[in-house]
Design goal:
The chain is an alpha/beta fold. It has helices at 3-16, 39-54, 72-81, 91-94, 113-120, 123-135, 179-183, 196-201, 212-217, 243-246, 251-285, 296-306, 315-323, and strands at residues 28-31, 61-64, 86-90, 140-154, 168-171, 187-190, 207-210, 226-241, 289-292. The longest helix has 35 residues, at 251-285. The protein starts with a helix and ends in a 5-residue tail after the last helix.
Length: 328
């Protein structure tokens, strides 16, 4: 995969535009909302280890998992405030700063994992990434990880759009995630990631949607009986570095940081792909009902909303995305 190389070039150019760097030896704060058992956290820890080693101890990274420094929206704000230096965030949240960054978090905009790979290796993504840096005041998408294909969990099968009707489903608090439930007649309920387990357990919401690795790591299968493989979003996680912090790193250390983040993003991507190949059977062994789903009726219902024009990305940009062939 060429993702690391492309993102490193984009990020290096953005960092140089921030002005002359100065030395800084204090620890960088790397914060995210994922559990310590998730591959993304393992990748963050590896990034911290490698960055310290390759800078000969000039810099270190402290990792703060599981929303310990705030929920995802707060972490995004923290990049510009200087309270955090590196975060994991979904495209939907990045899209609140620069709309096109959210495009692939909308349902069925990516056909499959090969299309996901091809997009993040494309000139189109380089343009989107540069646009995000400009709109955010210098924050840089330093790497992209595959987060997984999102599926619906509930206490019943969800095999057709009709099964979504009136279902109160938790979604992340970002517009990209609201479109799928709205188009299928469900009631989307935005809610912070850290609150979902209790909300499902107490019946505050009927359902939620996430990749299989997250369903396992957050133990949602303990409070939901059914997983329906809707695969409605092929999800990405951006590793974003604060422009404030980048201005404090030398060119050499910035380059090391981008290399480390790219390598560990590839590590988590491979781990999540491998996990997805085994987790369906694992969930069935736990007594969970896992249902294969015909995605065509869902795609048909959602399609009009993707070309309505009332989205944070242009129709032209969407067509460019669809024109990208699947990676070989």
């Amino acid at each position: 995969m060429k993702i690391k190389t492309i993102l490193g070039a984009v990020a290096s150019a953005a960092a140089l535009a921030l002005g002359a760097p100065v030395a800084s030896a204090d620890a960088l704060k790397f914060a995210h909302v994922y559990e310590v058992s998730h591959p993304l956290h393992a990748a963050a820890l590896e990034a911290a280890k490698l960055f310290s080693e390759r800078t000969d101890g000039r810099h270190t990274i402290e990792v703060f998992p599981a929303s310990s420094l705030g929920k995802e929206a707060a972490l995004n704000e923290g990049l510009s405030l200087g309270t955090v230096d590196i975060i994991y965030t979904g495209g939907g949240f990045a899209g609140s700063i620069y709309g096109p960054a959210a495009m692939t978090d909308f349902p069925f905009t990516l056909r499959n994992l090969k299309h996901w790979q091809a997009y993040y290796e494309s000139d189109l993504f380089q343009d989107v990434s540069a646009g995000y840096t400009d709109a955010s005041g210098g924050n840089v998408i330093g790497a992209v990880s595959y987060y997984g294909s999102r599926h619906v969990t509930a206490n019943k099968p969800v095999l057709s759009p009709a099964d979504m009707k009136d279902l109160k489903i938790r979604v992340p608090n970002a517009p990209a995630y609201v479109l799928f439930p709205e188009a299928t007649g469900a009631n989307p309920t935005p809610m912070a990631f850290s609150e979902v387990y209790l909300a499902l357990q107490q019946g505050v919401v009927d359902a939620q949607e996430n990749p299989l690795t997250t369903i396992q790591a957050k133990r949602f299968y303990e409070v939901q009986t059914d997983i329906s493989l809707t695969g409605h979003i092929t999800n990405s996680i951006f590793t974003v570095v604060s422009g404030v912090r980048l201005s404090q790193l030398s060119d050499e250390d910035s380059a090391i940081l981008y290399d480390v983040l790219g390598e560990t993003a590839l590590q988590s991507t491979k781990a999540i792909i491998a996990a997805e190949e085994t987790l369906v059977e694992w969930f069935r062994e736990q007594g969970i009902n896992v249902h294969e789903v015909d995605r065509a009726p869902f795609i048909e219902v959602v399609a009009p909303a993707l070309t309505s024009g009332d989205l944070p990305f242009s129709g032209e940009l969407y067509e460019q995305l669809q024109a990208i062939p699947d990676a070989e």
